[in-house]
Each structure stands twice: as C-alpha cells, then as structure tokens.
Design goal:
This protein is an alpha/beta fold. It folds into three domains: about 10-65, Nucleic acid-binding proteins (OB fold (Dihydrolipoamide Acetyltransferase, E2P), Beta Barrel), CATH 2.40.50.140; about 95-125 and about 210-375, Rossmann fold (3-Layer(aba) Sandwich), CATH 3.40.50.150; about 130-195, OB fold (Dihydrolipoamide Acetyltransferase, E2P), CATH 2.40.50.1070. The protein is about 25% helix and about 30% strand. Strand 15, helix 7 and strand 16 form a beta-alpha-beta unit. The longest helix has 18 residues, at about 90-110. It starts with 9 loop residues before the first strand and ends in an 8-residue tail after the last strand.
C-alpha cells in the first residue's frame, strides 16, 4: 500500500471514532491516522508526526468543526501532561465512550458477545478523586531548574505541575509541599498518598485510588460472588487484604496470597483489627501458590478473585486455574485489553463461560476504567482437555 502521508505534512480530517487509549481515529483514503485530544465527529487540522507502514500519528493543530460534546478542560496542563486523555470530553460522553471501547475489546480480542458488557457506572466525583499520585523530578537544561510533576504525553520529559485537577485536595497540598522542599536532584520519584480510613497500607503497597466509587466496586464483586453460591474464596494478588476482608462475611473461609510481604503483614493486621478469623493470608508468588490454595478448598464450591497488575495474568496462572477448575473466577482489571485477552484464554475450549462484565469509572478524565468479569465453570473436572 502506498503511504499517502509524510512527517510534517498538515491535513484536514474528520474523526470517525475514539480508540481505546484515547486517540481519535481518522482516515486518509484507507490509511489510518491517530490524533489525540479530539472528539468523535470533529473536523480537525492535524500535523503528521509519525508515519508507519499501516498507520500514522498526528498532532492536533486546530479544531475546525468542534463537537457539541467538547468542553473546556479544568487543568491548564491538559494536553501536555500525560495523566489525562479526556478532560476535553463531556463526562457523560466519557462514560458512554468507555462502554463502547470495553464492548469492542471484549468482542474483538476476547471473541465474546458484546451484550455481556454492562453499562459503565459513573463516578460521583469526576474531578478531585485520586488518593494516590507519583510525581517525578527532572532537571531541565533549557529552563535551568528542577521540574516537578508528571511525564508528558508525547515524550519522557517531566511537565512541571503545581496542582493536579483529578487529585484530592490533600494531595495537591502535598504537591505544594514537595515543590517548596524539592528533591535534591532529578530522576527521583515521590509517592503521595491519602491513607484509607481504617486500613493499614504500607507506603509502596497497592490500594484502589478512588475512595468515592470504592463501595460500589465492593458491592459489585460481592453480588456476583453471592450469585454463584461459592462457599470459599481465594483472593490472588490480595494486597493488604481489601477484597478478602470485605467479602469474608459472604463465605465460610478464604485465603489471600500476595508477593508483597509488607502488604501481607498489613493484611493480617487489617484482619485482626476487624476481628476476621475465617481466613488466612499467605506471602508468596500467586502462580506458585495457586495449586496449593486451590487444593485446600473444594473446587466446585470455590471462587477465585484475580486483581492482577495492569499487564494481566501470567499464562501459568491461567493454566493452573483451568486445571483446578474453581466454580467461579472474578477478574478485576483496570485494563480492558489485557482483560479480554486473559478471558479468551480462560474460556478456551468451553471450560469456562463469561457471564458478565461490569464496569465502573474509577478513573474519570483518563483512558482507564475498572472492570469486573464474572467467569463461571462450564465444564466439570475430568471433562474436555
């Protein structure tokens, strides 16, 4: 195919869709051009910045015909800072957009029917919701000063940021404190966090970053767990024990596993503080410990919660789950693409079936969205491959 574009060229295009990740999709003849910070249906002027064999990327120069769904971003760093992708889009449209993206990924990458995807639950506070941030320091030779903030969307340089529109107010106070007493040099990261009330969370351990929608996330997982009738629970990647302890009352017994040893120690303290005694927390690699944990409970009465990092589950963990065949797998993910990939592997050969994908917008203004996939055993042990 002849490439019709060259870097530096300016063209006018109409945006036909918004891809997962936030880039708009346009076409020149049959050639795809990706453009950030646009809204579906807009006509825009674009400068081509990169040309590959099958697609190109461009920089938004001017919005010629704006969408009625375009809004003014709250943050003056939007478009430079890489933290947000959708501040220019009306929030209700952001929610609809994410639902379409999840459905398309579940169909295209997973091979499932799109109607398994439920409407996305919006966040009651679409700004000022984040309770954790990672800010960076970097020496700028042109400016001859230390830049403190977040990586830019278009390169690895740090955008100097005085406050973050999606962060809770106490975190912005922390940003100001760090800027007043900056790190001694560039290349350092500073983690800022609001401690969740009633939870012991070590400095570098994971906890959900949106307190405003967290109760609804727990309700969603609990409802699916109760619907399956599972009596036992294995919480893989359990962190400080959040899901295991929130769901302990819905099962007879549970076990949590986590590689982060300080998190496991905190999980045990969290259990003690709550008087939860019907489970245990085990430190170690989830892949290595899953077989032992899944033998401990009757497979036909056991649910497994997977809440892995954004990269998804390792193939070995999926293989072990398919071999042990617990009755239910509840897969919690903030990355619908890796979720769809892993669901396809779990459900291969009809061993499991995908019942439902619930979604909650835990990350307004960004490309990310939290999903809860309910997978049920379709083929009993001894059946199939």
């Amino acid at each position: 195919m002849t490439v019709p574009l060259t870097p530096g060229q300016r063209i006018v295009v109409t945006i036909a869709d918004i891809a997962f990740g936030g880039e708009g999709v346009a076409r020149v003849e049959t050639f795809v051009v990706f453009v950030p910070f646009v809204v579906n249906g807009e006509t825009v002027e674009v400068e081509i910045t990169e040309v590959k064999r099958q697609f190109a990327r461009g920089r938004l120069v001017n919005v010629l015909q704006p969408s009625p769904l375009r809004v003014v971003p709250r943050c003056r760093h939007f478009g430079a800072c890489g933290g947000c992708q959708y501040q220019h889009v009306d929030y209700a449209e952001q929610v609809r957009l994410k639902e379409r993206q999840i459905r398309e990924l579940i169909q295209r990458l997973g091979g499932f029917a799109g109607d398994v995807v439920q409407p996305v639950v919006p966040c009651p506070q679409p700004y000022g919701y984040r309770n954790r941030l990672m800010i960076r320091s970097q020496w700028s030779k042109p400016a001859q000063r230390l830049m403190i903030g977040f990586l830019r969307h278009d390169n690895r340089f740090v955008e100097d940021v005085e406050e973050c529109a999606i962060a809770e107010a106490p975190l912005n106070a922390e940003i100001r404190r760090v800027r007043a007493d900056p790190p001694p040099r560039g290349g350092l990261k500073v983690a800022l966090r609001i401690q969740p009330e009633g939870w012991d969370v070590p400095k570098d351990s994971f906890f959900q970053n949106n307190f405003f929608l967290l109760p609804r996330l727990v309700e969603t997982v609990r409802a699916r767990l109760r619907d399956s009738g599972a009596r036992h629970l294995v919480d893989a990647y359990c962190g400080v024990g959040f899901f295991a302890l929130e769901l302990a009352g819905a099962v007879e017994s549970f076990a949590g596993v986590e590689y982060d040893r300080p998190a496991i120690q905190a999980a045990r303290r969290n259990a003690q503080q709550r008087g939860v005694t019907n489970g245990e927390f085990v430190a170690g690699d989830a892949v290595a410990l899953l077989p032992e944990l899944l033998v401990k409970f009757p497979a036909g009465q056991t649910a497994v919660i997977l809440d892995p990092p954004r990269v998804g589950c390792r193939p070995a963990a999926i293989a072990q789950l398919r071999a042990a065949r617990p009755a239910q797998i509840l897969y919690v993910s903030c990355h619908p693409a890796t979720l769809a990939r892993d669901l396809k592997a779990l459900c291969a050969d009809g061993i499991y079936r995908l019942e439902q994908v619930a979604a909650l917008d835990m990350f307004p203004q960004t490309q990310h969205v939290e999903c809860v996939a309910d997978v049920r055993l379709a083929m009993p042990p001894g059946g199939g491959n």
